[in-house]
Specification:
Length: 265
C-alpha cells in the first residue's frame, strides 16, 4: 500500500485562510478585500468570507473608517504562545540580557524561516542613540550577519538552494550583490565561527552574529549584537564584541546539548 503524502490531506479552505493571514506580513498594516484578492489570486467573495470568519475569531479586525482589515489581538496572542513554548527562546533570552548589559548594545535572537531570517527576540540597550527594533522583521540573508551565519552553518544543499533563489537586492552601497563574493564570505564565516554586517543592510549600522547549535550540531538560531557604526569600530568588534557573542552563543549551544569543541561536520 502506497503511503499518501501529507499534502494530499490539505483542506484548501483552511489553506486559503492561512494565505490571507500571512498576507499581512507586508509593510502595509492594513489590506482591503480587493487588494487581498489580487495578491492571493482568489475570488473577492472567497476572501470576504475568510475575513469574516477570521474576524469572528479575533484574528483580524476591520477598520471602521477605511473598511480595510488588519491583524487582530488573537494573532498576537497565538504568536506569544509560540514564543513562550520555544525552548530556544527560553535558553537564549537570559544570555541576550547579559550581552546587552556587558556591551550596552542591542542583542537579537533570529531563526531561519524558509529563505528568510526572522528576528524572534531582542533586548534593547540603554543608550541615547537607539537602534530601530528588529523584532518580527523578516529579511533576506545576503545582507545581514545573521543571514550569513545561517548560510554558513545550514546543510550545504540548503545553503545552495537559498543562494540560488536570492535576488541580491542592494540595500546599501556595502551590500554583497555577487554570488561568488557571498560564497567566499560564507566560507570565512564557517571557519571563523562568526559573521559581520558592515553597514550592508542599513547605513550607519553594524552587526556581529554567531550560531546556536543543537545536540546534533545543527544550527537552530543565531545570537547577534547590533549598534551604530560609530560605536562599532573594527577594533572593538575584534577585541570585545566577537569574543562576547561567541561565548554566549556557545553557552546557548551547550544548553541545547551541543558539546562545544566538537566538529559540526
Amino acid at each position: 500500500m502506497v503511503k499518501r503524502k501529507k499534502s494530499d490531506y490539505i483542506l484548501h479552505s483552511v489553506d486559503h485562510a492561512f494565505d490571507v493571514l500571512e498576507a499581512f506580513r507586508t509593510t502595509e498594516p492594513e489590506l482591503g478585500v480587493t487588494q487581498l484578492a489580487k495578491i492571493l489570486n482568489l475570488h473577492k467573495n472567497n476572501v470576504f468570507r475568510i475575513l469574516a470568519t477570521l474576524e469572528s475569531r479575533g484574528y483580524v479586525e476591520q477598520n471602521s473608517r477605511t473598511g480595510n482589515y488588519r491583524l487582530g489581538l488573537k494573532a498576537f496572542e497565538v504568536g506569544q504562545a509560540y514564543l513562550r513554548h520555544t525552548n530556544l527562546l527560553s535558553v537564549a533570552h537570559p544570555l541576550m540580557v547579559r550581552l546587552t548589559e556587558d556591551l550596552r548594545e542591542n542583542s537579537y535572537l533570529a531563526v531561519l524561516r524558509g529563505d528568510y531570517v526572522f528576528y524572534l527576540d531582542e533586548v534593547i540597550a540603554d543608550q541615547t542613540i537607539q537602534v530601530v527594533s528588529r523584532l518580527g522583521t523578516r529579511v533576506s540573508p545576503h545582507c545581514t550577519a545573521t543571514g550569513k551565519v545561517f548560510l554558513a552553518f545550514v546543510d550545504e544543499d540548503q545553503s545552495e538552494d537559498i543562494i540560488k533563489n536570492l535576488d541580491f537586492e542592494r540595500m546599501t552601497p556595502n551590500t554583497i550583490t555577487e554570488k561568488a563574493k557571498l560564497q567566499k564570505e560564507i566560507e570565512d564565516v564557517g571557519s571563523e565561527g562568526f559573521a559581520v554586517d558592515r553597514e550592508e543592510w542599513t547605513l550607519g549600522l553594524k552587526c556581529v552574529a554567531a550560531p546556536i547549535l543543537d545536540y546534533y550540531g545543527k544550527v537552530q538560531g543565531t545570537l547577534s549584537i547590533s549598534g551604530p557604526a560609530e560605536r562599532m569600530s573594527e577594533t572593538r568588534i575584534k577585541k570585545e564584541i566577537v569574543p562576547a557573542i561567541q561565548q554566549q552563543a556557545q553557552e546557548a549551544s551547550r544548553k541545547l546539548g551541543f558539546l562545544v569543541g566538537r566538529s559540526t561536520a
